[in-house]
Amino acid sequence: MSERLEDIAAAMVADGKGLLAADESSGTIKKRFDVIGIESTADSRRDYREMMFRAKEAMTRYISGVILYDETIRQKAADGTPLVDIIKATGAIPGIKVDAGAKPLAGFPGDTITEGLDGLRERLTDYYKLGARFAKWRAVIDIDVAKGVPSATSIGSNAHALARYAALCQEAGIVPIVEPEVLMDGAHDIGTCYEISKATLTKLYTELYAARVVLEGTILKPNMVLAGKKSGKTSSPEEVAEKTIRLFRETVPAAIGGIAFLSGGQSDEEATANLNAINAIGPHPWKLTFSYGRALQAAPQKAWSGKAANIAAAQAAFVHRAHMNHLAALGKWQPELEQAA
Ligand code: 5MM
């Protein structure tokens, strides 16, 4: 495969394929395993992820790349094959989460700043040698309007950190996924999500330009424009699509390599229906696909439940969700396909 940043970025969003976000940090994967009653150990995490990476139909037809966690990129499968080699053999590209998590922003209660820039240049060199050709950094922007969250300082600091991260990635020959996640956890309405996402993306691209990041060699991983979960409102896919695309047309340069959404706590089918509606109102200046964690993994996780005997069923559940999202990335998904399965 070409090593040019713009070619790697293009491959990440090509042909209706999307990304599997399997980069849960140890704390997050433990929470997921708690739900299915599985102890989180290095071996159980390995077995679970190996199950997905060996789901050949999903990996060869629907998944363009996998975002890994530091532990996983160094792990070997039960038979001794490095997990990275299993991914590469399917034609998918290995990637790596390089941020060190969102921490409280001093002086701004309720806001966070994502850490991880110290020593990043050296870590990227190491990850390149381990096979990573793209990376991910997630900034977290919560919304609580009554409390003044997010502050302009939080948006500015996070955008600046994303730009410094992106520039370091490109220096190392690695495509940066820039993820400024405006959370859907709050009680806000869809219009507020739109405004906060607009302020965030505007600042992000100002910082990326200032840092001399080559936009063609980047992927944006954004939230969709949605009402907050605690608002009790669910926006229709048509409204989500219209507002999300309007937002991007106002703020996201056509030059970027592509867009791969996070699912952010939407149900599996909601995340698919919204992505489909977004692509159905195209053509758009960018490819728009998925980089889902929960919306791709919830079903296979439940089906697997830590038992070797369930591997085939779990892989089938993963293939199904990957297939549905592949169709949505092409604007060709229909709800009946879920029932049929
Ligand atoms: C898979 O979860 C990722 C890692 O989260 P932590 O660092 O908190 O463990 C997360 O960044 C994920 O890649 C994105 O949020 C997208 O995942 P969802 O579940 O929102 O699609």
Automatic annotation (TrEMBL):
It comes from Mesorhizobium wenxiniae. PANTHER family: FRUCTOSE-BISPHOSPHATE ALDOLASE (PTHR11627). This is Fructose-bisphosphate aldolase. GO terms for molecular function: fructose-bisphosphate aldolase activity. It catalyses: beta-D-fructose 1,6-bisphosphate = D-glyceraldehyde 3-phosphate + dihydroxyacetone phosphate. Pathway: Carbohydrate degradation; glycolysis; D-glyceraldehyde 3-phosphate and glycerone phosphate from D-glucose: step 4/4. It comes from the Bacteria. The lineage of its organism: Bacteria, Pseudomonadati, Pseudomonadota, Alphaproteobacteria, Hyphomicrobiales. Belongs to the class I fructose-bisphosphate aldolase family. Its EC number is 4.1.2.13. The keyword Cytoplasm does not apply. GO terms for biological process: glycolytic process. Keywords: Glycolysis, Lyase.
